[in-house]
Amino acid sequence: MDFGKVADSQIKDVDFTLPQDGKQTLKTLAGLKPVGHPAFYIGCAKWGRKEWVNMIYPPKTKEADFLDEYVKHFNSIELNAVFYSIPNAELIRKWKVKAEENSDNGFVFCPKFSRTISHIKRLKDAEVPTDLYLSSISEFGKFLGPCFLQLGDNFGPKNFDVLENYLKHLPVDLEVFVEVRHEDWFADDAVRPHFFEMLARLKKGVVITDASGRRDCVHMELTIPEIFIRFVGNGQAHQASDFARIDEWVSRIKIWLDKGLHKVYFFLHQHDEKDTPILANYTIQQFNKHLGAKVPEIDFINKPEEITKQGELF
């Protein structure tokens, strides 16, 4: 994932401090009470990583069997594979069977809207590809988690009405999180509250993307009492920094849980994905320890040397 990437030499100069909660977050969580058993989903964006053979996939695992192994370790995936083309129902059923046969952890797929809809059609006259997309992903059945609609860097607030109209016509029972990237969604003081209020009114979630070079996307706004966080780590050379960033997210999520947040989706990315299971497992450990999550840790076959954390969060 190259979005928000900065040169290694610049990482030390990035302020990774999480901003204060936004105004919409305060509105969304106002009057809520903590739930007894909030749900936690932690995963990656891809399963097809050859580097994970001998790390979490058994030796000699074939690429065709990577998903079979992935679902044994994680309870969710941010499914980017369907972005590049609208999936056919047969393929979705094939993936579903792999989850059925190999997972016992409540696994869910969180599919990205296909780029035909978001980037080529730009949500205009997109009824046909949307119907095809929805028809296919419905084959996931109980394994379908929320979908996320990622809009391009050049999809700015001038398209507000187009976005609102598109979201209004989606099935009301379809869980959707929206990711915007154009700077004006966050920087324009008139647009920003209007955007988040619209999502809250339509009961759509919003994605928070934590990447080094786009701190404006760490907007800290919740439009529903659920979060969908895309965390972009900087790789093994910066593992201590990435762990510290996870620690800060744990602290913030704990505050939100105490105020009534009831579901967390947390997906790990890195510019070099080979060590992402290490980062993901650290996240699982901290969520379990400090947030009361009960997500099974990753069962490593061969675990690279990890930086040892010193001290406690709280």
TrEMBL record:
SUPFAM superfamilies hit by this protein: TM1631-like
Record-given protein name: Uncharacterized conserved protein YecE, DUF72 family
Pfam families the record matches: DUF72
InterPro entries in UniProt: DUF72 (IPR002763), UPF0759_sf (IPR036520)
Annotated source species: Pedobacter africanus
Domain of life the protein comes from: Bacteria
High-level lineage: Bacteria, Pseudomonadati, Bacteroidota, Sphingobacteriia, Sphingobacteriales
